[in-house]
Write a structure and sequence with these properties.
By secondary structure, the protein is an alpha/beta fold. Among the domains are: 73-181, Conserved hypothetical protein from pyrococcus furiosus pfu- 392566-001, ParB domain (Alpha-Beta Complex); 306-353, no CATH class. The chain is 50% helix and 14% strand. A five-stranded mixed beta sheet has the order 1-5-3-4-2. Strands 6-7-8 form a three-stranded antiparallel beta sheet, with no helix packed on it. Helix 8 runs antiparallel to helix 9 (215-231) and helix 11 packs antiparallel against helix 12. The termini are far apart. The relative contact order is 0.06.
């Protein structure tokens, strides 16, 4: 007779070992003999989109639209409503010196009647602030309307961050199209852009900002840039200076008449543009009579720019030298004639107190 074997139930530890073994070698189906095609079909069914064809087409269209929208925002092709108070009007030094009062009143009336049709251009500065690139007149008109109870927002295209030189180019381009700048304003903005560090020099600023202008026009702009550098702190009616007289004045400055012209303007200033030119013209005629005056664009060839130094507070000094002499030209953006005189007096006192500094050639 066979001996009976005693059976014992597995304890918890043994059951845990069984579970671990099953986990290592999972069973694919009940029989463990499923065909490869069945496995492929099952995986395809799990990965497939259960939605219908129309739903899938709609989702693809929405995804494409979202991508196009993101690209439009990144490329600055979307008009947004932003608060007027969030726009910094002086983010870029403006090219236009004075605004035409009558033209601005007409713009206010047009916006009051028809609303804003054309957006301004701004760049995002972060923390909800924006820097104005173009559209200063529209901003000024909308601010006036807001003070009368109008809307507190402005339609704007938010551009991606731009290089400083590109900002000046964008601003000038709009003003040249909508309300042409005067010859002096073109030269002035080139000097200002260089002083702000957007370009290495005013000549480079002319080439960059007015890149689409003809060579002859850029030459004239350089002449008015020279006028602003030499006489900008003394001229009261520079925007009234005609192109012809401006070129004559630039020629006189190149011939060395600058000190004489400055002395005339410091002694007396006219009440209008005609009187101001009457003070300047004798010195211009004197330079022309000597045959030294030049109407060609650019700066005097005898002294080549050598170095530009920052003196703090936005003041820069341009150091240049030739075989005959050296020159130091100070650029004081936004300063008055009195401030320039005070600096000149300080320099004079420095020279008096340290004469030995200039004994060595």
């Amino acid at each position: 007779m066979a001996k009976r074997r005693k059976l014992e139930a597995p304890d918890a530890a043994e059951l845990a070992k069984f579970e671990e073994g099953f986990a290592i070698r999972p069973v694919q189906d009940r029989l463990g003999v499923s065909a490869p095609i069945a496995q492929v079909a099952g995986e395809a069914a799990q990965a497939g989109d259960p939605r219908g064809a129309d739903a899938r087409i709609g989702a693809a269209r929405e995804e494409a639209d979202a991508g196009a929208w993101r690209r439009a925002i990144e490329e600055g092709r979307v008009v947004e409503d932003i608060p007027l108070a969030a726009v910094e009007m002086d983010h870029v030094v403006r090219d236009r010196i004075v605004a035409d009062h009558d033209a601005l009143e007409e713009l206010v009336a047009s916006l009051r009647l028809n609303g804003q049709r054309l957006p301004i251009e701004v760049i995002a500065l972060g923390t909800g602030r924006y820097g104005l690139v173009s559209g200063w007149r529209r901003m000024e008109a909308l601010r006036r309307l807001h003070s009368e109870g109008g809307a507190g927002t402005v339609k704007a295209i938010v551009r991606a961050g731009q290089e400083a030189g590109d900002l000046y180019s964008s601003m000038v381009e709009e003003n040249e199209i909508r309300a042409q700048l005067t010859p002096y304003e073109r030269g002035r903005i080139a000097v200002v852009a260089a002083d702000q560090g957007a370009f290495e020099s005013s000549d480079a600023a002319v080439e960059g900002i007015f890149a689409v202008a003809s060579k002859a026009k850029r030459s004239k702009i350089r002449s008015f840039a020279l006028i602003h550098e030499e006489l900008g702190d003394l001229l009261i009616f520079p925007t009234m200076l005609s192109e012809r007289n401006g070129l004559r004045l630039a020629g006189a400055l190149r011939s060395g008449a600058g000190p004489d012209i400055r002395a005339r303007l410091e002694r007396s200033q006219g009440d209008d543009a005609k009187q101001e030119w009457a003070l300047i013209e004798p010195a211009v005629k004197a330079a022309e009579s000597t045959g030294q005056g030049s109407t060609k664009g650019g700066r005097p060839r005898s002294i080549a720019p050598a170095e530009r130094m920052g003196l703090g507070h936005g003041i820069t000094a341009e150091l240049s030298a030739s075989k005959e002499e050296c020159a130091i030209q100070l650029h004081l953006p936004g300063r008055s004639a009195d401030a320039a005189r005070q600096i000149g007096q300080q320099i004079a006192r420095l020279l008096e107190a340290n004469p030995a500094m200039f004994d060595t050639p």
